[in-house]
Amino acid sequence: MKLRLNSDGKEVEVWAQWIEGQFWYHLFGETRVYKPEMQKAKGAQRGKLDLVAPMPGKVTQIFQKAGDSVETGKVVLVMEAMKMEYSLKSEVTAKIEKINCKVGDQVSLGQILVQMKAQQDAK
Amino acid sequence: VKIRKLAIANRGEVAVRIIQACQELGVETLLLHSEPDRNSRAYRMADQKICIGPASTSESYLNIEANIKGAQGGMADAVHPGFGFLSENADFARACLAAKLIFVGPPAQAIRDLGDKVSAKRLARQVGLPLVPGYEGEDQSVETLIAASEKIGYPVIVKAAAGGGGRGMKILEDSKSAKALIESAQRESLAAFGSSRIFIEKYLSRAKHIEFQVFVDCTGRALHLFERECSVQRRHQKIVEEAVSPSLTPELRSRMGQASCALAEVGNYRGAGTVEFLLQDNEFYFLEMNTRLQVEHPVTELVAGVDLVKAQILTAADEPVFSESEFRAPRGHAIECRIYAEDPEQGGIPSTGILGHVSWPEGPGRRFDYGFEEGDKITPFYDSMIAKAIVWDFSRNSAIQKMLKVLDECVIFGVRTNIPLLKKIISHPEFISGKMTTRFMETHFPGTLKMSALSPAGTELFKAALRETPKTASASSISTVSTNSAQNSSGQSLVFAQPWRAF
Hints:
The complex is a heterodimer.
Chain A: E1 2-7, E2 10-19, E3 22-27, E4 30-34, H1 37-44, E5 51-52, E6 57-62, E7 69-70, E8 75-81, E9 84-89, E10 94-99, E11 106-107, E12 112-118
Antiparallel strand pairs in A: 1-2, 2-3, 3-4, 5-12, 6-8, 6-11, 7-10, 8-9, 10-12
Chain B: E1 5-8, H1 12-25, E2 28-34, H2 41-45, E3 48-53, H3 64-73, E4 78-80, H4 90-98, E5 102-103, H5 108-115, H6 117-126, E6 134-135, H7 142-152, E7 156-160, E8 170-172, H8 175-193, E9 198-202, E10 208-216, E11 222-234, E12 237-243, H9 250-266, E13 271-280, E14 283-290, H10 297-304, H11 308-316, E15 333-340, E16 342-343, E17 349-350, E18 353-354, E19 358-359, E20 366-370, E21 377-378, E22 385-393, H12 396-409, E23 411-412, H13 419-426, H14 429-433, H15 440-444, H16 456-468, E24 478-482, E25 492-496
Parallel strand pairs in B: 1-2, 1-4, 2-3, 4-5
Antiparallel strand pairs in B: 6-9, 7-8, 7-9, 10-11, 10-13, 11-12, 12-15, 13-14, 15-22, 16-17, 18-21, 19-23, 20-22, 24-25
Helix pairs in contact in B: 4-5, 5-6, 7-8, 12-13
């Protein structure tokens, strides 16, 4: 919807809309999106180390299996969306606990694809 | 030949573009679409639609048999392939012919001869088009390779003949380091690809991407409609295009244009095609030919005053389109910005979702080619380009100014877009100077864009807007309203349960 708001005595036009729990607004020539805390909390439930789909798309390659140890920066799987490839890398040195997807799967945004476990000192 | 009904073997904004051309020509349209593309503007606009398969492109838009069956089933007498997908597929052109469908594009043989890089280079050489100087000989001794490099002139780039992806590539700056680098490239190539064979090419470190629009009407005579510059690209994906290039003199334009026409004629081309070049230090080198309509065709339409899609359809129907004297000089300047559904703050990763409010700031010299509207779903299955903003003005500077204003006023809710990046690109001093090369993006915008924080006044406005906007006006509350158009199912429209308030 279009709002006419007053900013320091001047009338300013602002477009604003809620879409699926996110607040979109267009102000001073720029579109921005605001995600309320509720939205963020959902993501916080997952383990910090887990690999999460940053976009909806298809899993095209998986390089590791459960039980493997991976180093920081190691590519664990590759996704594809809109003809673009995106590599998911491990952000820490960790052990792969579980892989929740297989090659060819269509996954959604925020889906936990790989569960990781922090690696304690080498046994 | 008469085309009564035209099938569109494509989607998105180009499908809309073709439907609009058909509506003006009085030709009926049949959209051949995938399952998820029922949620698209082209679907709502087409007279008739046939679903040819699921989301996966290999089972729908790239499936020759499904497209032919769909076109036949819908009683079309011609097929327009748009761009991408099957548009440069000679087998598809041939299959259309076999099914007695007119293919809106060049003959299959011309696609084969000019669309294939190796055979296109052979034809280009035949008509005297300059190619990037290089050495691809059998003699791979280091002495011969150094001699070849010297003959080409430094800097040169060494590439593995068997490979790609940058492996085994070396840039040689002078003869001193040549021997060591050539040997190292041979070793790497052998290790990576099992063959030490290498090619040498002149290294164009500050080249511009210049392409000529050619058109061959039904008489077989080729003419060119000037050039476009598309140097602003990232990973070979064009982002901003313009016509004409700020770097060509009329003399160079005429030489490159004539060379492009000669290539089209020797390849027995028909319809719209594009000859791509690299340009550096006023020397041009043939790259390849695209045997189809281009994404960036609107900028040519605006400076040449033509409708390329209508011209394509008329040519396919064997009707003459352009007269001899029409294109003497380009008029004004046009710029196109491709709008991609991607998140510039996350390095451009794809952004998908249901579109919310969308507004295009219409006005003189502004054109918006788009395939999706409020309520449509942007899916991860296809290319991320959702729209194109195109402007025309009397000079390049005024066109840039207009584009900046347009980008400020474009509102797209529901998916992130590259609009913030586009604004940075066209206000960059190197772009404004017109001196940008194909390395513009990697040099100036290599990573992720940081959006500036809201000003204090902006923060206040944001809070007020948040307060005043009811959550009920969300895109998930779309209601589908059917109207009573009895003839086909196109009478569906998506209406927003959206309150409109003004203060």
